[in-house]
Amino acid sequence: MNQDHIRNFCIIAHIDHGKSTLADxxxxxxxxxxxxxxKAQLLDKMDLERxxxxxxxxxxxxxxxxxxxxxxxxxxxxxxxxYEVSRSLEACEGAILVVDASQGxxxxxxxxxxxxxxxxxxIIPVLNKIDLPAADVERVSAxxxxxxxxxxxxxxLISAKTGMGVDTVLESVxxxxxxxxxxxxxxxxxLIFDSYxxxxxxxxxxxxxxxxxxxxGDHIHMxxxxxxxxxxxxxxxxxxxxPSKELHAGEIGYVxxxxxxxxxxxxxxxxxxxxxxxxxxxxxxKDVRPFVYAGxxxxxxxxxxxxxxxxxxxxxxxxxxxxxxxxxxVLGFGFRVGFLGxxxxxxxxxxxxxxxxxxIIITNPSTDYHIHLLNGEETIIKSAADLPDVARIAxxxxxxxxxxxxxxxxxxxxxxxxxxxxxxxxxNVSYVDAQLALVSFEAPLANLLxxxxxxxxxxxxxxxxxxxxLDDYRAEQLVRVDFYVAGDRVDALSVMAHKTEADRLxxxxxxKLKEVIPRQNFQVALQAGIGxxxxxxxxxxxxRKDVTTGLYGGDVSRKKKVLAKQKKGKERMKRFGxxxxxxxxxxxxxxxD
Length: 593
Prior knowledge:
By secondary structure, the protein is an alpha+beta fold. The chain contains 12 helices and 30 strands. The chain has a 6-stranded mixed beta sheet, with helices on both faces.
């Protein structure tokens, strides 16, 4: 295909603004999918994506329109997968910005627009859902004009659900998106913008070829990962794998390799040919580093090997998943797993439970901390239980984020108060238009891991949206808060907290544990402590059995003797009895309220 007749573009938007629905209509309109084969969210292949109505994995597809080859990438909308979005944008020359006409500009809309601008893409603004009674075209158009600096007539008005106006989107893509400018004769360079593991075929790469050609049977080399492989098959996605002889400069397609793990071909890496390798990699590659960690344990130690195999298989297709073995006196053997965010954690947990029929106990999520010791050494911990002796520590550094909250201006005061309560501080307040405010702030990541998003939605009546990126590590006065159940310290419950918040956190968590842990035949003490000092306590009262019911009349000493025997038994049970801690107890921090 002549490069002048190729258009590479993606769809970017906030969650639930209609990306996947618009992709469905484009596939229908170009005849890529027959109407009888059509189903909602066609490019979302996972059951989880369909149930939740969100895109988790990006999906490329090639369409034919008039004399043009259109390569579309449908991207995820959630902040946890923003790295995937940024790599997809690098593979394109244009982006369709979809904005819900009833909701307007949201935080992730802004984040994706900034990414598209940084990649110097042609942005086509589209207002979706204009058929809804709640649609406010004038207001949302003003927001888009303010954001992009475009004219009102540049904004396309469509309804992806009914198909109204979708043909104008295709015309605009052909007219406005520039064609790729690759060199066919140069050394081959292709950007990997996604990869996944197929049980039967090995690692399959989704690539955009910038220079040269990749043909079936070529020996390939990944520059950053320094790994070699064989291109067993190449082709395009229509949307299923459609083999061809080769992929040329400017095209988007797939490469089936003989690699055994996606770690050998990571997102953002550059593919070249072993026989005539390119010396310079394509710009922008970086290792995706998880910054949310949680312990995953099987419900029974008998299932440890099943969990181990399941995580290994899942990590083959998810290069962002990092794990290492972990053991706990209470929960037994499991894994410390790193995630890109809470949604990523939720998705992985659900996939393990569904695809591998596992019952999983997941501990409270935490982040990583940089520990500087007095002897000059530096160590990184991913769990509060790994904190070295306090006497050896010079300082503890925790990760901070830069965030943006978009909300109606009436809620700005409440949003700033929420940021302050999370130990953050507001940097700037600007206004997208007369109604919509953008609050920039900085805050410690640990304070945003639990219920920050829920609280934001609550105080803004559901209108607030939130986007963030990791900034740096800062030294703070941090302490480890330990929790004791019946006198035994439960390491899996330990958390890192700021000195000013530790007492409140201890009291709240102890009260929450009191609701979750069932009553026993003996009294159970729940305590929170910092070092050797207890800061909170709650008691779960014992079940009471009236042992005097069978006594009728007689001397009162008979009753006292029976009660004394019961008391002795309870004291013995208290010394030797074990408390069965339910799985809910390990996630009490997720919902502090």
